[in-house]
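ok trying again, last paste got cut off:
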Amino acid sequence: MKAWKTILAATALALASSTAAFAARTDLVLGITLEPPHLDPTAGAAAAIDEVLYANVFEGLTRIGSKGEVLPALAEGWTISDDGKVYTFKLRTGVKFHDGSDFNADDVKFSLDRARADNSTNAQKALFAAIDTVEVVDPATVKVTLKQPQGSFLYNMGWGDAVIVAPESAETNKDKPIGTGPFKFDNWAKGSAITLVRNTDYWGEPVALEKAEFRIVPDAAAAIPALLSGDVQAFPNVGVGDALPQIQADPRFKVVIGATEGETILSTNNKKPPFDNLKVRQAIAHALDRKAIMDAASSGLGTPIGSHFSPANAAYVDLTSTYPHDVAKAKELMKEAGLENGVKATLKLPPVAYARDGGQVIASELREIGIDLEIIPVEWADWLSQVFKNKDYDLTIVSHTEPNDIGIYSRKDYYFNYDNPAFDKVIEELDLTSDEAKRMELYKQAQKILADDAVNGFLFELPKIGIWDAKLEGLWENSPIQANDLTKVKWVD
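nice, full thing came through this time. structure:
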């Protein structure tokens, strides 16, 4: 009898070990190109912040889904007054921040008032400009009154910049982020990785992953060995250049080429001579060969654009023919601008491959029409300080990955230094309009004005090249917002 007990115990142990061996994995190492400057989505413009934290650690009243739709988040529902000015949000109850403190209406009021305050450091402060008052009705109800109706208000509240934070931890979120999301911050090894762990007290549907490490792999050439070795199991957005066909042919991996909200542009300082001259900007537009630029910057992937709008949006207008590639015409415009003898300028390039590689092609193309560019490589911190904040630049290249952000051109302090009352009027009307057909028409008008003014060199919509283990599911194929949402990610057999 004792021998049988021993055999049965051994068999049970073997079965348990076998079951464990075949259990689905609950850890993930996900590669990202850029390290965030800090970890507070409400205090920085860098897309890398949201790429780690949006929907994972921090949540807003609403959230943007994988198809760009507005979904409930910390607000389980809302009502809108007949005049479109008063939004009453019904908040979820029983929600806790990661430090154990309760989430309630006071946190919503604090977050919205903080974001729109005079001393706000929120990179998208304009999102909150329409708010007149925020009132706590009761712990689970908040009433937000707008100065005027705003058709995009619920969408705006779904941005990463609008996530809800607690007053007790708001000032330390840059290093120790505390949100209400399904993952908690665990560790940040600077220059190496950021680790999140499952929040076992999450108010919503539990996530499948127990641990997610965002591994920083800035060198695209290092991405392939990391994938092949299994050291990194997913790159949601990566440039692998000529190696893409090799990866596509490997059955161990899934390759998904999706769309982003990343308008890749040759950003131009519109108040800096000679770029304050429309003829010079038009000359640049004619000199740009989008195909050649895309070949160098994104392996030929992406969609050419002629204005600041995503081709995935229903209101998109193809304006690439506004200034077709025409070197002779570009030279003629330079002569009309009195610059037939040429001009020198600078091109500041952030560290991403699309900028550094595309910048070389653009410099060559502009040299052909007499614009001699000094290429100045800069790190992201310097780009944010010099270019974005202090407007100390002539030209630069960047992808604007914020969702549906054409309204930035109406901001008087924005780094483009663009000013057109006709454009501002369209955006003002757009903000007041909730009728979808009318909004689409206004979006089209806005695109046309920007294209005609050649505000920037509009290049292409950045493609999202995702590569991950074939046994992973739930990663977003497209990027309607700058995020790596892990809430539905799991391993399957």
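cool. The first strand starts at residue 27 and ends at 32. Confidence is low (pLDDT under 50) at residues 1-21.
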